[in-house]
Amino acid sequence: MAMNKLPKLNLRDRAVLMKTPLISGLAPSVQARMLELAMPGTFAARGIIFREGTEAEHLYCILSGYVRLFRLGRDGREADIRICGPGDVFAECMLTMGPRHRYSAQAAENVTVARFDLQKMRMLVEREKEVARALMQVTANNLLSTMECVANDRLQTAPQRVAHYLLANCPPEGSEISIRLPFQKSLLAGKLGLAPEALSRAFSTLKPAGVTVRGRLIQIHDVSALKQI
Amino acid sequence: MAMNKLPKLNLRDRAVLMKTPLISGLAPSVQARMLELAMPGTFAARGIIFREGTEAEHLYCILSGYVRLFRLGRDGREADIRICGPGDVFAECMLTMGPRHRYSAQAAENVTVARFDLQKMRMLVEREKEVARALMQVTANNLLSTMECVANDRLQTAPQRVAHYLLANCPPEGSEISIRLPFQKSLLAGKLGLAPEALSRAFSTLKPAGVTVRGRLIQIHDVSALKQI
DNA sequence: CGAGTTCTTGAGCTAATTCAATTTGTGTGG
DNA sequence: CCACACAAATTGAATTAGCTCAAGAACTCG
């Protein structure tokens, strides 16, 4: 057994990683193998994690913070494809569809991740059915939510998208609810496929429906009214 | 070995299925197992294959024809999420993310498919790593193209989307090329997230760039000019 | 408290949708 | 094989949603 000089996750990060959908469902022995492979990564706000076109080396599981997956347009404009938060896995497609990234990833704020070397993961997937199953699950989940994103882009207006987001991220109880946005509004705008101004206007549109915005705090005075939008 | 009363694929369909990415990479013995499970399905033009909200029973691999995956809006409008053609697999997410379909599937024309019972597939995936790998590959592929779809929707105009589609579906040779659309224009419009009228106008816009349309036949007089759009 | 960033609001503009009418294409039966 | 009938595609006109640009307000953090 060769001595492993690679950097390891600290205890705190380990604990977070264990709670992750990628890992939590595995048998303890397999979890241990995954922890073996996990390398820590930290990125400052706005730090680039990888760029589209470059060769993929890792798959990532977020431990804290939010990450923006986006693509560059010919004219330099950027379009967000997906916003990932704690527990989310990204670049998992590079296991089979490499070698080059099809999109860029950027830390939207200070971010810590667990990185898994793709080569080693391929070997582990080959040996451990459970890991294959977990990855399949994660990928299928990502696919379904991306498909839903396409559908929402195509048949919802801006206020509808916002209402949909709020309803999807609020406790199902009660009629009066308040939500704290986990990230900046500009990031939410990107996630919903809107310019920041359009998000602002969408919130204004929802005000008559009982939505109050103050900073990151959003109050919904009547949940059922929002569902009608 | 119990006598199997299930309908089987005919020889022709078997041959087509074997060429499919889902099957072609497998070892012969595993291919045989897959063929065992494959049940034939035919759908008339406009026939509904399954509806969103219903319980998923199969995953599908298309043998001939095109299938429209779409979602219903609250107001009854429909938005296409993906257009699948021969060799494509759909509803594969239902292996792990069931039990209910998140979108509907409709035959855009006469269609033949191979259906695989989800229960049996789950067992086969458990036994045969190769099948798991093939499905992982298919799903990752679907995820990447769906992500690209989101990006294209968000940063390309209608003429750009059409140009992109044409360039992605033409032989890379020469500067003068003609393409035969494999399906109706209304379907292409849906695939690109456009109303049929918008597709028509996009083609008009491309006429100065050397694109001629007559029925399903499209002539591109200057490929490199199209790339500038 | 103050400086920088993020967010909001306004005005003008553009892309794409909707609705309606015409043309073209396709398939069927005489 | 042609004519007819239905479906699909195109074109025009009006409308709408969202974008861009620019300025002002609010929030955040040191």
UniProtKB/TrEMBL annotation, chains A, B:
GO CC terms: cytosol
Tagged with keyword Nucleotidyltransferase: no
Record domain HTH crp-type: where: 156-224
SUPFAM superfamilies given in the database record: cAMP-binding domain-like (SSF51206), Winged helix' DNA-binding domain (SSF46785)
UniProt GO MF annotations: DNA binding; DNA-binding transcription factor activity
Pfam families on file: cNMP_binding, HTH_Crp_2
SMART domains in UniProt: cNMP (SM00100), HTH_CRP (SM00419)
Keywords: DNA-binding, Transcription, Transcription regulation
Superkingdom: Bacteria
Domain Cyclic nucleotide-binding, first and last residues per copy: 22-142
Protein name: Crp/Fnr family transcriptional regulator
Record lineage: Bacteria, Pseudomonadati, Pseudomonadota, Alphaproteobacteria, Hyphomicrobiales
